[in-house]
Amino acid sequence: MNDPTTGRHARRMLNRRAFLAAAGVTAAGAAIATTTQGWAGSTKAAGTFRVPVEDVRHTRTWMAWPDRTAIWGRDLSGVQANIALIARTIAKYEPVIVCANPASAAKARSMCGSTVTVIDSIPVDDCWMRDTGPVFRTDGAGGLDAVGLSFNGWGDKQTHARDALVAERIAAYAKVPFTRADFVGEGGAIEQDGAGTLMATRSSLLNKNRNPGVPEGELEKAMCDAYGASKVIWFDGVYGQDITDDHVDATSRFLAPGKALVQMPNTADNDAFAKDARQQYQILSTSTTADGGAMAANKLQGPDYNKIRSTNKNFLAAYANYYVCNGAVISAHFGDKATDEAAKATLARLYPDRVIEQLNIDSLGTGGGGIHCVTQQQPAA
């Protein structure tokens, strides 16, 4: 348990991929892969719109209801309870819409309660709305639209016939214009500061399973076109050790233009993800924003895996995977009391005008994700 080469992030090695292997779901079984490769022939996003930083006022939060035993195993109670808890908690601060399949909608309504809206008109494969949902943009003049990132099941690792259509269908439900970005990716793979700067890992986006053969400069331009940005801060990331190929939102987040946060590993941890986190902090500490300003990088200490509740080797304990909603920050606690309390204090210092809510979402952590992974904000125009 104390081996520094199998520390904090080594536990992410299989996560959701373990469920896929057990169920016999492979890339060959992933549906409509050809229709989700959005590089060729897609529509460029309008340059007048920009994805705002997450702490702007929201109209609502979008989520999805998991019901596939082929993905989660026979016992869905844990992950469904986590999704319901997150939805109910966010609903204290802003409206929440959960997309559920018709056969599961009644159960979703029962577990989420009357404060959460559940709809059955947008079918889903899984619950990772950050990756499958639309990226909403504003133009600063009352305009709102949405961009789809051509979701392809994290590089055809999971079936996604329904999830590939979620972004466009939510945009239609919200009655906003929709375009498809000129690259394949997921919302959790890109962080934006709302003022022209993005950050991302090469391992996730510059990967042959998403954008084969695309040069970095060309991909960077497509990302900036979609997000209304002009600069990308790149991290190398970690290839092939989790289903996302190392999404940035599990480690580094933007707080505001010129201000970022990185979840740091314990000193003894020396696995690939721990090294990656330290590199992300170092790069951010010496980076500048799109307008040339200095970047301030804040540290958020990660937990000690020897002290958390879960003993699952695939568990992801990411405080950094929090969600900012109207008036609150929704984060997680993992059972390491000292770092749980320290993380809450750090978030309270960084978001002084918001309530900090910490939730037990251990089933999601076992599945390789967190609160930010299962939410998608719709900002006010």
Automatic annotation (TrEMBL):
One of its GO terms (biological process) is putrescine biosynthetic process. The keyword Lyase does not apply. Residues 1-33 form the signal peptide. The keyword Transcription does not apply. Keywords: Hydrolase, Signal. InterPro entries: Peptidyl-Arg-deiminase_porph, TAT_signal. One of its GO terms (molecular function) is agmatine deiminase activity. This is Agmatine deiminase family protein.
